[in-house]
TrEMBL record:
Cofactor note: Binds 1 zinc ion per subunit.
GO cellular component: ribonucleoprotein complex; ribosome
Metal-binding in keyword set: yes
Cofactor(s), by name: Zn(2+)
Keyword list, A-Z: Metal-binding, Ribonucleoprotein, Ribosomal protein, Zinc, Zinc-finger
The name this protein goes by in its record: Small ribosomal subunit protein eS27
Gene: rps27e
Zinc finger (C4-type) residue numbers: 20-42
NCBIfam families assigned to the protein according to its UniProt record, in alphabetical order: PRK00415.1
Family as reported in the entry's similarity comment: Belongs to the eukaryotic ribosomal protein eS27 family.
Protein species of origin: Metallosphaera hakonensis JCM 8857 = DSM 7519
Any one Gene Ontology molecular-function term assigned to this protein's record: zinc ion binding
Amino acid sequence: MKKTRILIPEPASHFIRVKCTNCNNEQVVYSNSAFPARCLSCGTQLVYPQGGKAKIAGETLRQLG
Ligand SMILES: [Zn+2]
């Protein structure tokens, strides 16, 4: 008997450059981060982990790869 394997598609993960809406500081964060990332300059939380793809609170400027 053959077992059908269902492959769970992994979410595309990449690094993105975001701009803090509070102080305009730019920094690179991981789009699938499991941990909250804060702005290095003012401490505003920029990444909210949601189990899969993280929610980016700042302005996304560029995807890095
Ligand atoms: Zn900031």
